[in-house]
Amino acid sequence: MAPRLSLRTASAGDRLALWRLHTRSISSLCRDVYSDHEVKTWVGLLRPEAYLPPDPPRTVLVAEQDDQLVGFGQLDLVRGELEALYVSPEAVGLGVGSALLSALEALAWHANVRAMSLDASLNAEPFYRARGYMSLHAARRILTSEVYLPCTRMQKRRPSALRPATGDGPGQGLTPLPEP
């Protein structure tokens, strides 16, 4: 029987584990679509102190199995922006990313967000497409003045069955990212 997956809100004590998971995930899972230089630059910019605590309205959820952090996701509820979703290399294909994404979507829909947007790394684009996200356009994530990561801007609209009949709520508008 597979170990039970649990989701919870991240705490300040998760900071180092989040950083380790994030750097391992990028180093392992992005090597097939980005150059060594791009991956090393990306990982080199990550710092443990940057992970928590998030400023409201950001929410960070973590996924655990056997008391080990196996994934995390970060959502900005005002902008409807999925800012991060990473899974440990050992947990790929085990439903961790799907569970985190579903939980973050539920939070967004409950907060009356009309659509969730994200910049998908090239290796993650099929994952999001399989979960109902539409590709909007090619984009790039600026790491340094000389290193840009190609990515895909994607969006998923709130299911119509979950839309309120009237009224406006927080996070209903999307703030487009400036083009690099």
Automatic annotation (TrEMBL):
InterPro entries: Acyl_CoA_acyltransferase, Bact_Acetyltransf, GNAT_dom
GO molecular function: acyltransferase activity, transferring groups other than amino-acyl groups
CDD domains for the chain: NAT_SF (cd04301)
Positions of region (Disordered): 157-180
Domain of life: Bacteria
The UniProt record lists the keyword Transmembrane helix: no
Positions of the N-acetyltransferase domain: 5-159
Keywords: Acyltransferase, Transferase
PANTHER family attached to this UniProt entry: AMINOALKYLPHOSPHONATE N-ACETYLTRANSFERASE-RELATED (PTHR43877:SF2), AMINOALKYLPHOSPHONATE N-ACETYLTRANSFERASE-RELATED-RELATED (PTHR43877)
Protein name per UniProt: acetyltransferase, GNAT family
